[in-house]
Design brief:
Largest sheet: 2 strands, antiparallel
Oligomer: single chain
Strand content: 5-15%
Number of strands: 2
Structural class: mainly alpha
Distance between the termini: 17 Å
Helix content: 55-70%
Length: 96
Amino acid sequence: MARHVLADRLGFQRSHLGSYLDAIEERGLVRRTRDRADRRRQLVELTDEGEALQRRLWRVAERSQESFLRGFTRAERETLTELLRRVLDADDRARG
């Protein structure tokens, strides 16, 4: 995705994203390339190693969520998930 879109989605100041990307690019988790359609734009994508880490972290998050929400019924979990999505959507629109 375009670097500025990534910064916006993460809630980072665009000017600060470069140093974060430097660190994870050095670890081999992302790569930056120029957009062929607009050479001024820089694209950021996960490497194979970055995708593998993302999958591992997703599994950890799922286990944590399962443990955390154990006391809720399925219906309550679905309601909570829907409400949290609405909060995130509202925040996205506000940043617009």
